[in-house]
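Quick one:
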Amino acid sequence: CSLRQGRRPERRRGSRAMTRPVVTRFAPSPTGYLHIGGGRTALFNYLFAKHFGGRFLLRIEDTDAERHDEGAVNAIIQGMDWLGCKHDGDIIRQSTRKARHKEVAESMIQNGRAYKCYCSKEELDALRAEAEAKKEPFRYPGTYRPENLPPDFKPPEGVEPVVRIRTDEDGTTGWDDLVQGRIDFPNKDVDDFIILRADGSPTYLLAVVVDDHDMEISHVIRGSDHISNTPRQLQIYKACGWEPPQFGHIPLIHGPDGQKLSKRHGATGVEQYEALGYLPEAMRNYLARLSWSHGNDEIFTTEQAIEWFTLDGCSKSPSCFDFDKLNDLNAHYIKECDKKRLLDIACKLYPELVPFAEKLDMAVDMLKPRAKTIKEYREAASFIWSPRPLEMEEKAAKNVNSDAAKQLLKDVIDAIKEYKAEWNAAELETMLVAFTQAKNLKLGQVAQPLRSCLTGSTASPGIYEVMWVIGKEECIGRIEDALAGKNSVKAAPVSAPAAPKEEKKEKKGGAAPAPAADQPEFTKLEIKVGLLTKTWPHPDSDKLFCEEIDVGEKEPRSVASGLRAFYSEAEFCAGRKVLVVTNLKPAKMAGFESAGMVLAASNDDHSKVELLEVPEGAQVGERVFIEGLTGEPFQPNQVNKKNVLKNVLPDLKMNADKKLCWQDKIVLTSAGPITVPTMANCPVG
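Output:
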């Protein structure tokens, strides 16, 4: 990235050139813990502000008294502190600004951009029911707009009105999104929404706009689930005569199954990751790489992230939260961590380690390589802090049960008692090697039963280092415990027998019948919901990804896709759902045999491409369909570019609502239509 901290950014992705200082904000609602997605949003806002020498502010959106939880406020602040996203200035409480919100609403009434509405709940419910009966989206009809009222109108008695904004009816409301590109919404789809409730409290849409304006926010960086709020907020900015900030909507975070990250995927709160033993620098590094990249850099410092970070590096597509990658990254940072800080963190998480701090300090270098989290670090150190007599693993107990092993261990005790040299790993190695040679044994024949006695396990750091750390008297005591049969034995976990795989039954009559001559062309294709299980760059082509895709068959499909110019490895990764044509004739692509085609939308010159997004709830392996069209797909190897594809693809497009259509008919999954983030009225292939 050519930009550095303190410089103003150049115009990019259609954004306005900045004429004011950079100010970003993180504005969580205090209804629970700091979600990992919120943590990433805070981090992106922090990095962006610091890259441009700006300010990063924190606002607590606590106007909802019923859902407000002060404990959640503390959890959010603590989570941000742990993550290292230090905000500038005082924390702003939205609830303290209600008078200001009301003042703005009253001003909008005075200038004719808002009005009081006296519709009752019953009236609105009747209007909604009428729209539903017509299968139309509900849109408030402007009943109480001043021009729709009679000249002698008098407000009904005893009714406290709400305040609605007068929105534009014609044209569009749009913006140049710093991540998603140009986005426009027809104004006919934005009704006169409420900005002030009957009790005088502001709605979310009004409060956010007023607060962002008063805080002089220059950039709103938030999740793509807020895109639908933006045209409404822009209407408020316009009504107030204020310059809106620039918007950048970052994609959501998905779990490994391609669904939105939730509790079913594991820990979702930032504080949970601290408790599980992740280091904040590892989490910062990992979150920064979710939908943002700087070339091929995977590991970098926070200072480097600040230097490199702009929204140009953000992708438009959801990223997959990969716990294995996080663990590997955390293992790197554990190895790099100062040993005193590492010990302090371990003792904070596990106070029972405090009495063993001195021995843990001795063992730090032998424990670091054995741990991907602080929890694993504690487990690797269990030979230090476990009380005597140790609990032995079942395999370890077998190493000390034989008469020969017991006699050998008695001899080891004698050797240790007679040992007079300095108690360190190097000298202990000399002693133990001499002992094994004198007994005409191999080192493993001594080390295995000795390790079992000293650690209760068959795996541990080097036996000489273990002896050095636990000390002479403790070594003797633990061996004596084993000889006296004092150790309890921990049974090995019993694995449940694997369920037998069901054999897929062949359909009666063998192969599927040949399609009828009058069968709709679309139904001759077999287009399925697929799940990426493995992806990698093609070794011989800089345009291709290779991937394995689960489409509900016994084995994943091997497919090559020309997407490397449009997606990074972090974006096009395992866990993402895609749409795949599965009955194509296999074809060689730069030497790689591809048995399918991943569908994507593109503009006419193919300079912009977006993968189709499968709705949440759609099942892997299900075939997409169009209501009213039926027919069996062609068998594999019967479909190629010269027959079915050439008849289907010209009519396969994204419509004006960014939904996949064929001949203007919506293509569906069991969970609804297929969409793309931003592209409309464009071809699909």
